[in-house]
């Protein structure tokens, strides 16, 4: 499918042990920031759990009394201090992007989100043109909180709209009303946010073509400059998966999801948006999410928070998942990292092909081996790669190629 709803996995992968102090190999530290550097901050709190959600998040009832939102910012700042010690005299030249995700980051007081951003600036320094994004649920922000975030230096907000259809929101267990996401987007623009994104999910059981068309129309009318649209993926262990196993809801249809994707492309293109990644559209180059581009182009980032993943100089690691375990390790002066892996050259190549092919800028053909070039030629002949870009030495997906992106990737890799 052209896009999937992704999150930190329900079960963390295995890997090699991480030193108690979190130290990295010298080679990794020497390379930090060579392709850019970002900071991801995970906020694992939600007011309620959506039926499709497999993210590393917790409601108050799930956390019990052992974890407090009030002290969460202090734990993040403690990990930031550890990160500064780990990178030592090899810090990144600057922080190009900051992305606060969740969960629902805006369940934290806006002043705490401001304090975390200030801590990142004090530790490594924010680039003059830094992009700072926070995710938010539409019902978790107010005009006043948005103004506070904007004054603190947040430049971009990503709102989880998912759908404009009340019935679809009910199936997904979303708490906001059908019109609240558009209202929140307008409030963000009024507060001075330079860039506003609305997220959509398509292919939910019961969603009609008219439902999705109405969602797209509301997105366009909201005046945002970025849209993300993902096919619903049913994750094991979620309430939605249980309902489908019991036969209460049908499973998503790949054919319907493909139709929805084509509808999104047509409506957004007509409204002046251009795709720059298979599941993402922007009104201009400046509106593209630079933090996600940093991921997709192999740059470095430090992930702060429970379950957060990091990548520095070819070393990737992930933190313990539970907020209590995360806070306990930091309080003891230890790294919260659970395990790590050192990416081989072949692994880095595989990820580079998988991620860069999803971009409108495409993949340079000269990074492919002989078998990969043969696969690219087959994809071009089959109408899956743009012929003009191919002649210029780049593999760029056509619209049909975007629908079959995973198959194209498999053909380009050994």
Automatic annotation (TrEMBL):
GO terms for cellular component: cytoplasm. Signal peptide: none annotated. InterPro entries: Aldolase_TIM, Coproporphyrinogen-III_oxidase, Elp3/MiaA/NifB-like_rSAM, HemW-like, rSAM, rSAM_sf. It is found in: Cytoplasm. The keyword S-adenosyl-L-methionine applies. It comes from the Bacteria. PROSITE patterns: RADICAL_SAM. Gene3D superfamilies: Aldolase class I. Residues 31-274 form the Radical SAM core domain. GO terms for biological process: porphyrin-containing compound biosynthetic process. Keywords: 4Fe-4S, Chaperone, Cytoplasm, Heme, Iron, Iron-sulfur, Metal-binding, S-adenosyl-L-methionine. Probably acts as a heme chaperone, transferring heme to an unknown acceptor. Binds one molecule of heme per monomer, possibly covalently. Binds 1 [4Fe-4S] cluster. The cluster is coordinated with 3 cysteines and an exchangeable S-adenosyl-L-methionine. Belongs to the anaerobic coproporphyrinogen-III oxidase family. HemW subfamily. This is Heme chaperone HemW.
């Amino acid at each position: 499918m052209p896009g999937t709803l992704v999150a930190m996995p329900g079960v963390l992968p295995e890997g090699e042990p991480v030193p108690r102090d979190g130290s990295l190999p010298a080679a990794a530290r020497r390379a930090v920031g060579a392709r850019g550097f970002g900071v991801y901050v995970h906020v694992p709190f939600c007011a309620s759990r959506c039926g499709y959600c497999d993210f590393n998040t917790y409601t108050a009832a799930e956390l019990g009394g052992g974890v407090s939102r009030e002290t969460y910012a202090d734990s993040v700042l403690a990990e930031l201090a550890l990160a500064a010690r780990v990178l030592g005299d090899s810090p990144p030249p600057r922080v190009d992007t900051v992305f606060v995700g969740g969960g629902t980051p805006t369940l934290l007081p806006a002043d705490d989100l401001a304090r975390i951003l200030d801590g990142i600036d004090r530790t490594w320094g924010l680039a003059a043109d830094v992009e700072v994004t926070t995710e938010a649920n539409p019902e978790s922000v107010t005009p006043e909180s948005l103004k506070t975030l904007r004054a603190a230096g947040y430049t971009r907000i990503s709102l989880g709209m998912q759908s404009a259809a009340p019935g679809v929101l009910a199936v997904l267990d979303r708490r906001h009303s059908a019109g609240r996401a558009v209202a929140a987007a307008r409030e963000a623009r009024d507060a001075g946010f330079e860039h506003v994104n609305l997220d959509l999910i398509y292919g939910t059981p019961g969603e009609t073509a008219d439902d999705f068309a109405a969602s797209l129309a509301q997105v366009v009318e909201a005046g945002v400059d970025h849209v993300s649209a993902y096919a619903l993926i049913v994750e094991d262990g979620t309430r939605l998966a249980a309902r489908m196993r019991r036969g209460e809801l049908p499973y998503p249809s790949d054919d319907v999801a493909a139709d929805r994707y084509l509808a999104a492309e047509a409506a957004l293109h007509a409204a002046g948006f251009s795709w720059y990644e298979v599941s993402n559209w922007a009104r201009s180059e400046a509106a593209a999410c630079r933090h996600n581009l940093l991921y997709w182009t192999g740059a470095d980032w430090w992930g702060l928070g429970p379950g957060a993943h990091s990548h520095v100089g070819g070393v990737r690691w992930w933190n313990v998942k539970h907020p209590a375990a995360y806070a306990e390790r930091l309080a003891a002066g230890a790294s919260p990292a659970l395990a790590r892996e050192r990416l081989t050259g072949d692994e880095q190549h595989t990820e580079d092909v998988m991620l860069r092919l999803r971009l409108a800028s495409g993949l340079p053909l000269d990074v492919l081996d002989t078998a990969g070039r043969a696969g690219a030629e087959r994809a071009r002949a089959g109408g899956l790669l743009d012929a003009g870009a191919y002649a210029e030495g780049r593999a760029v997906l056509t619209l049909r190629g975007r629908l079959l992106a995973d198959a194209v990737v498999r053909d380009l890799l050994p």
